[in-house]
Amino acid sequence: MNLRSPHLLGIEPLASEEITLILDTAESLAQISQREIKKVPTLRGRTVVNFFVEPSTRTRSSFEIAEKRLSADSLNFSPGASSLVKGETLADTARNLEAMAPDFIVIRHSEPGAPHMLARICRCSVINAGDGAHEHPTQALLDAYTIRQKKGRIAGLRVAIVGDILHSRVVRSNIFLLRKMGAEVVLSGPPTLIPQGIERLGVKVEGRIEAALEGVDVIMMLRVQLERQTRGYFPSLREYFRLYGLTAPRVRLARPDAIIMHPGPINRGVEIDSEVADGPWSVILEQVTNGVAVRMAVLYLLSGGAGGGAEEEIRNPEA
Amino acid sequence: MGLLLRNGRVVDPSQGLDESLDVLIEDGKIARLERRLTAQGVASIDLRGKVLAPGFIDMHAHLREPGEEWKETVASGTAAAAAGGFCSVACMPNTNPVNDERAVTEFILGQARKSGRVRVYPIAAVSKGLSGEELAEMGDLVDGGAIAVSDDGKPVASGRLLRLALEYARIFGIPVIDHCEDPDLSDGGVVNEGYISTLLGLKGWNRTAEDTIVARDIAMAAETAGRIHIAHVSTEGSLELIRRARAGGVRVSCEVTPHHLTLTEEACLTYDTTTKMNPPLRTGADREALLEGLKDGTVDVIATDHAPHHSDEKNVEFSRAPFGVIGLETAVSLALDRLVRPGMISIGRMVELMSVNPARILGVPGGTLKPGAPADITVLDLEREFSVEPARFHSLSRNTPFGGWSLRGGPVATIVAGEIVHSSLD
Predict the structure, then answer these.
(1) Which residues of A touch B197 (CB under 8 A)?
(2) In the structure, what pLDDT confidence band is assigned to residue A319 with cuts at 50, 70 and 90?
(3) What is the Cβ-side half-sphere exposure of residue B232, based on CA atoms within 13 angstroms?
């Protein structure tokens, strides 16, 4: 089996079998990162452009490591150094990148739909590394990988996602993925940060965090961005923490074996108490580890690697 | 020099006519309208099987001249109008410089005399520089040829200024046309706020930003006895407010666009910037409500909001693209294929919406084929297939979401003051 599209623009267009394929492939590839020599020749001779038009440390590093472990040649291209500041349009930048014949463009952009525009223009594979408040598919995949690793399954689990739902690409990708894979999803956050019509995606919305956390298997916390307060979505960070901050007593409302996730970077004392972030429930750093394997799987599958073939590839360490 | 139009089906609701009649044009005016006419030494055209309507008037277009001639000019915009079956176009003042001074109004009319294919009616700004702060010199602008005032593209955000404009406009008997959007509430939204904006992660343009300003405008029109015209109504709520105000005797009229009548927010799902306009495409329920308003008479006018933009400007990220679609060359076919053909409205009602009512609201000649009226005639073929090919548009711009659509029915000849300004007749 293979992925149907040459691009990964979002979770929404994926079938559940494709999601399973990516997660299974990631599982095979994860071993590479545990070896002394963390490199296989799978993508040797392939070029990846990491085109980050919005700042990102975690996601870009994770992609870069994934690329290097698969022996791809990668190039980082970010707006400070690029011609976007000179007024070149995204379409022209894309055509110029395309002219250098990369095999992949990994794009992070502040505008929803920017990766889709690239995919229409370029012949290479386009991977969405986050487009505005739209999607962040590899984040949802690494979250799913982590949940599967900890819980053995996704179907039938109850997952609470808490925070700024309105501006979060992580939420959208996670909702698509979790619903496709048969999990229940309940959202909570200030009503000013819950977008209209979100229930139509098959999720429940609870105004109070306590109601959302009741009996859940997984708690996903979202980062609160300071500029949201200055735009008046909530009165103060202090009140935000009082109403929606994840504290140990609140964690105890969830199932005893619940896990706590966060896409990072975390704001200690704003959306999550340090005691919780560093506590036994937390899998936040494992998410980061898993991000590399998931991104390796995505690159491998989009380069034409078939499901099941990954096993074969990794028996062949760097020659 | 006259012209005899024979055997056409004359649809003219201003005279309650829908029958096969010959039309004789003399000196640019309708001379006679009878069952069988003969005239010596006059060219004649057989229009059997075609519909003749009083010339269509688009009361809401952006011709972009002066200042943005790469998007459209008076010449190209009126060529598009002629090709699209419009005999007259009213053009909005958000040019550069803004049409807030008589010299600009006169410049536009000068361009229209030199290179215009159809009649051009400048709409002047309500406020100087569209700044929403102080009234432009309405009297001088009207003397120069302006037929209405509007700050279109923006609302008249200050309620106080709107009140002054409505009161002051009473001197001239002209309508104040308002683009209803509370910018504080629409807050940078680019698509309708709701499920689709949530799905796409795009900033939502909340419907209450339109409804609250419509409510304010109605209250203000009632208070001042001024004439308010609500541009491009897009929500069910706005339309209901207008319906109730009208029932209560307030002088409020309104228009809807062909795109809000034929498309919904789902068209934005591919991030195609030709579906980005202001107000944004709304929900199916809104569209149904607008169609209901066409049927029950609440809607007075179908107007295009023809808003040309260069493809370089539109070929960017969705949020960064300018708002607007062009409509002059698709409006008539869309109305015939999507409204008249399925029986939603009659052809007579369509003529009211596109000719009779805009003439009445703007107080301009036309809207009738009564003898003595200007010989402005739109000739329609209800059966011919029209495929929308943006590459062949007369407009300088191509920003239409209707490219590739196949529509049955459309304009086949446009006659202005007795002159055939466009024809695709055999």
Answers:
(1) 195-197
(2) very low
(3) 29
Mean pLDDT of B258-282: 98
pTM, rounded to two decimals: 0.94
Q: Which residue of A has its CA nearest to B195?
A: A197
The string of DSSP codes covering A34-63 is GSSS---STTTT-EEEEEESS--SHHHHHH
Q: Please tell me the distance from the alpha carbon of residue B22 to that of residue B4, in angstroms, as a whole number.
A: 7
Q: Are B316 and A91 an interchain contact pair (Cβ–Cβ within 8 Å)?
A: yes
How far A114 CA sits from the closest chain B CA (Å)? Answer: 6
pLDDT in tens, A179-210: 999 999 999 999 999 999 999 999 999 999 99
Q: Which of B197, B312, B320 sits opposite A111 (nearest CB)?
A: B320
> What is the tens place of the pLDDT at every residue in A254-313?
999 999 999 989 999 999 999 999 999 999 999 999 999 999 999 999 998 766 666 666
Distance of residue B312 Cα from the nearest chain A Cα, in angstroms: 9
Q: A228 — contact with chain B (CB < 8 Å)?
A: no
> Are B84 and B334 a contacting pair, CB within 8 Å?
no
Between A91, A117, A134, which is nearest B201 by CB? A134
Give helix A284-302 / helix A137-151 axis angle, nearest 10°. 120
Instruction: Please tell me chain B's helix, strand, coil percentages from 3-state DSSP, rounded to the nearest 5.
Output: 35, 25, 40
Cis peptide before A263 (omega within 30 of 0): no
B318 contact residues in A (CB cutoff 8 A): 111-113
Q: What is the mean pLDDT of residues B139-151?
A: 98
Q: How far is CA B231 from the centre of its chain?
A: 9
Q: Would you give the DSSP letter of residue B353? A: I
Provide the pLDDT for residue A312. Answer: 65
B163 pLDDT higher than 80: yes
Sign of CA dihedral A76, A82, A85, A88: negative
| B→A interface, C-beta within 8 Å | 193-202, 204, 270-271, 312, 315-320
CB-CB neighbours of B76 under 10 Å: 22
Residue pair B399/B311 in contact by the 8 Å Cβ criterion: yes
Please determine, for residue A318, whether its predicted confidence score (pLDDT) is greater than 50. Answer: no
Find all residues with CB under 8 Å of B109, minimum gap 6, and list them.
B120, B122, B144, B145
Taking CB atoms and an 8 Å limit, are B201 and A135 in contact across chains? yes
C-alpha torsion angle, residues A89, A94, A99, A103 (rounded to 10)? 170
CB of B379 closer than 8 Å to CB of B347: no
Structure tokens at A286: 């494992």
Per-residue pLDDT tens digits for B173-232: 999 999 999 999 999 999 999 999 999 999 999 999 999 999 999 999 999 989 999 999
Task: Quote the CA–CA distance of A197 and B68 in Å, as a whole number.
Answer: 39
B140 tagged catalytic? no
Q: What is the distance between the alpha carbons of residues A162 and A205, in angstroms, rounded to a whole number?
A: 10
